[in-house]
Amino acid sequence: MDISLDEIDRRILTVLQQDASITNAELAQQVHVSAPTCLRRVKQLRDAGVIARQVVIVAPEKVGSQLTAIVEITLDVQAADRMEQFETHVAAEVAVLQCYRVSPGPDFVLVVQVTDMPAYHALAHRLFTSHANVRNVKAYFSTFRSKFETRIAV
Fold first, then answer.
1. Distance of alpha carbon 2 from alpha carbon 48, whole angstroms
2. pLDDT higher than 70, residue 63
3. Where is each HTH asnC-type domain found (predicted)?
4. Burial tier of 48 (Cβ tally within 10 Å: 0-12, 13-18, 19+)
5. pLDDT tens digits along 11-44
């Protein structure tokens, strides 16, 4: 279902991206529409897939997940089925937060969150060294996160 976003939809999305835990009444007040209109608009945005899901963002350091790695992966064979096989393989791993096919350069870039370096090594063994089609792995380890954002300008 395609949806054309108007100014009200954009205001709703902007507010919800900042705090999706607010009540419908609070949201309606902030975007200057009635509560029933707001509820209907949010439902339409969900049904159209514009709002993919609502989640809680956890501070990794507060739950013992201290190490963020950005990992470049180059496959040995880049056939479509082998690329999909690799995506399925990494998607099953909870420590992989994001997986992107990229071009040019490596085939994939992953964002990984683990507790520490031994946990990264275990993950690398599970995902990369045991996967016959991985040719090259290059990992970058975050020393400081200066910005983390999930909002998209609408």
1. 7
2. yes
3. 5-66
4. middle
5. 999 999 999 999 999 999 999 999 999 999 999 9
pLDDT at 34: 98
Long-range contacts: 103-109, Cβ < 8 Å, 24+?
Answer: 105/72, 106/72, 106/73, 106/74, 106/136, 106/138, 107/73, 107/74, 107/75, 107/78, 107/83, 108/72, 108/73, 108/75, 109/70, 109/71, 109/72, 109/73
- Is residue 100 predicted with pLDDT exceeding 60? yes
Residue environment code for 108-131, b if the CB has 16+ CB neighbours within 10 A, otherwise e: bbbebbbeeeebbeebbeebbeeb
- The more confidently predicted of residues 3 and 23 is 23
Domains plus CATH for the chain?
Answer: 7-47 (1.10.10.10), 60-141 (3.30.70.920)
Given the DSSP bridges, would you call strands 134-141 and 67-75 parallel, antiparallel or unpaired?
Answer: antiparallel
